[in-house]
Design a protein that fits this description.
Blueprint lengths: L20 E4 L4 E4 L2 E2 H7 L2 H10 L5 H13 L6 H7 L7 H11 L13 H26 L13 H10 L10 H14 L6 H11 L4 H12 L7 H12 L5 H9 L20 H16 L6 H15 L1 H5 L6 H12 L6 H21 L28
Antiparallel strand pairs: 1-2, 2-3
This protein binds carboxymethyl coenzyme *A.
Carboxymethyl coenzyme *A binds next to helix 16.
Family: Belongs to the citrate synthase family.
Keywords: Acyltransferase, Transferase, Tricarboxylic acid cycle
GO molecular function: citrate synthase activity
Amino acid sequence: AGVFTYDPGFTSTAACESTITYIDGDQGELLYRGYPIEQLAEKSHYLEVCYLLLNGELPDREQMETFERTVTRHTMVHEQMHNFFRGFRRDAHPMATMVGVVGAMSAFYHDSTDVTDPRQREVASFRLVAKLPTIAAMAYKYSIGQPFVYPRNDLGYAANFLHMCFAVPAEPYHVPPELATAMDRIMMLHADHEQNASTSTVRLAGSSGANPFACIAAGIACLWGPAHGGANQACLEMLRQIGSVDRIPEFIARAKDKNDPFRLMGFGHRVYKNFDPRAKVMKQSADEVLDLLGIHNNPTLQVAKELERIALEDDYFVSKKLYPNVDFYSGIILEAMGFPTSMFTPIFALSRTVGWISQWKEMISDPSGRIGRPRQLYTGAPARDYVEVDNR
Ligand code: CMC
């Protein structure tokens, strides 16, 4: 027996100390290792942000080159994994495939599963950062019946991912540099977000000593839900379902109706009660990408813009401090790039992997670390005697 604090949804419990990411939800502020997300999105690039999150400081030129070289060396997956992919149904959701394949990495990379060995932890980190784009792209290629495309190590991280998704052996594919930049920015904006559901899942899984591949697979599984990373897919599907600007009021009314479970996807956040700073950058990126691709009259986009305008002026959304979040705009960019909605959450997952590993490494190297073991308030039956089946 004991007295426990009851905190459903963990709205007021800090589960750990961390030096990685800082969020001030009232100010709409997000810092990675102290650096504002807006500055990183404008001046940095994804692999530099990975280094920063993993190591705590920005790299000098030599450290950056070594890091890039190391990640690049690990971009291919074990050839036997191709067969593992082929065991899935072609119409499997790429997230389902990723949960399986990433979990299965522990069956392929035995030399980086010993969590007590710092060197093995390091190698596992590189492998995960390097291979997640390859795995996500393979899941996509498999789902559309095209051959897997091997990584190209002469390309940057984001450009290589686009290459693996959109190239086919039959003709050359040149990654448009502006799209690679936009993809890189999406990755940076998703790289970490402190103790959200999937990150807490990774930490909890890791606290038992489970290997890093198993922990990241757990994170991917948790991310999939529509209240979390699955919101980007759900948001675009919602915009399509609304279909035209004149139907927006109907959906706004549904979102406000207490008896209707419908929510405006891409709106609201547990921590941000002011604008999501990632959404600001993402919105600007969306405008740039659509301009670049000459997309102006896209009906989904028109619905998105009008929905945003109406919701930002509506008393319900204003009083509950529900603003568009990062997922509201990312889907618009990804759709314009040619990704099907089923790839939106895998792209979130591959971008967040570095945050998960950074948090996992921090957790595992904390000498005061103990297994995560939440308590509960038991509300079930008191002790009672077993009743024979004929007497029930
Ligand atoms: N549409 C309509 N009403 C909403 C919405 C929404 N999107 N979000 C919250 N509310 C209402 C909710 O009904 C509740 O009303 P009341 O106080 O009258 O009961 C109030 O606002 C507070 O909502 P909550 O569910 O207690 O808030 P939460 O902090 O537990 O949930 C959330 C946060 C993000 C899960 C929620 O806002 C939501 O479901 N949003 C839609 C899904 C989404 O876009 N998720 C992505 C989040 S950002 C990226 C990520 O984390 O992966």
